[in-house]
Amino acid sequence: MSVLRPLDKLPGLNTATILLVGTDDVLLQQLAGSMLKEDCASELKVHLAKSLPLPSNVNRPRIDLIVFVVNLHSQHSLRNVEESLHHVDASFFLGKESHCSVHRNTVVKLAHTYRSPLLFCDLEVEGFRTTMAQRLVRMLQICAGHVPGVSALNLLSLLRSTENPSLEDL
Amino acid sequence: MDETVAEFFRRTILKIPITEMMTVLKAWDFLSENHLQTVNFRQRKESLVQDLVLLCEEKRASLNDAALLDIIYTQFHRHQKVWDVFQMSRRPGEDIDLFDMEQFKSSFKKILQRALKNVTVSFRDTEENAVWIRIAWGTQYRKPNQYKPVYVVYYSQTPYAFVASSLLKSNLPLLGQALTVASKHHQIVKMDLRSRYLDSLKAIVFKQYNQNFETHNSTTPLQERSLGLDINIVDSRIIHENRVEKERIQRVTQEIFGDYPQPRLEFAQYKLETKFKSDLNRGILAEREEPLRCLVKFSSPHLLEALKSLAPAGIADAPLSPLLTCIPNKGMNYFKIRDK
Fold it and tell me: B320 at the A interface (CB within 8 A)?
């Protein structure tokens, strides 16, 4: 149970669960609060974790989306995420994982390596945080399969940033 | 009244913010209620100050009265100065007579006046057996400079004195000597502790900071008393995966820092004189005999509260380094670290 797998559990009825991983507890909690304020047809559940692996003796629902939150003011935060990434099964990366970062560059490389969508946001500002929360809620609904016609893998190709081509040239 | 004294009055009164003017003047108690009523406090500050200076001249206020007003202003604005802490000691086995405040003051003044003809010394008693001393220094040939005074707060029942100096460091040895002899001590030593917040320095040095001022309901579980994260109000749809770890961090933090508000310091400074240690075998700094000299300084509006919130905020691991957590216990915020 030390590696997170995307499809090893049955989904809950109309439930979508997101896992936010990051060292900055207060910010994660605020982001979770903003997400839960959003109007959403599905029942949302937010799990907050400092790092992976998750404690194994807990009964938890299937996780539909993992978001790693990196604070670029802190080397500790980045290293924590790098280590946690080892504990995520490869199939999660097909659309069910993304990075949300509080500032820039090493993270761009990291996200590119894992082919993960990278979102930037200043989570301390209320307005930006609400916008990010809205985006995450939409992404979560798609990953949980609650939006007909769009799958997580579709979303992944749609989220490819246009900056990526320059990195692929390296 | 002497021109210089009048100017000194004017500048001292001008420093006082209008909102505090009444309070300070009442504490000074030189101008009575009746006198104060003759002044219009609603005019422009410059005119108000002029009126007050004229009133002082009428009442034949002296330099000492002005110095007293300066002390009171500083007592209201003590955080504008940076305070050092000095500790005095007696010879082992020395007999301690009962402390006589008046004798201390006259002895202190005499010592300074004998050494430097031109010096202004003023005293103001406060509660807790403490005295505020203001010293304006001159030289053999120059009158005292009233605008760069040194303040000393001495708690007579303790061996501690707090000193706020302006930049004239040359007179500190004389000051130390006067304090030591007048208070019947043998030696004085400067502690490695400095801050703007006199009350916090007091709390640290007199070990009064670990008292709970609020009544804590100790039956509330640890999480609900946690720092800033109000888990009670939190949605039940938010689940903390690392609850066990969070509780451990809260517990460790509480063991180290306690439940009480921390005394206020603005910085901690660590002077390293240790040899450079490196994993890489080759490096410019690696194979030197002399220690690497390096200074690390932590600054914050409230350093100890910031350190206390580091682990719960996820920025550092708990427990924190003892170099950081020993600050109030050891009563130091300047450290010199050498190789053992």
Answer: no
Closest CA in chain A for residue B246: A50
- Where does a domain end: B57, B77, B97? B77
Owning domain of residue B295: 242-338
pLDDT of residue B110: 94
B312 and B264 belong to one structural domain: yes
- Whether B227 has a pLDDT exceeding 70, the answer reads no
8 A C-beta contact, residue B240 and residue A32: no
Q: What's the mean pLDDT in B43-55? A: 89
Does any domain span residue B227?
Answer: no
Number of domains forming the structure of chain B: 3
Question: Please, are residues B238 and A29 in contact by the beta-carbon 8 Å criterion?
Answer: yes
A contact residues 71-90, partner B, Cβ 8 Å cutoff: 74, 76-77
Dist CA B59 CA B51 (whole Å) = 12
Is residue B182 within 8 Å of residue B156, measured between CB atoms? no
CA distance A116 to chain B (A): 23
Q: Closest to A76 (Cβ–Cβ): which among B240, B246, B315?
A: B315
Looking at residues B208-226, what average pLDDT do you find? 50
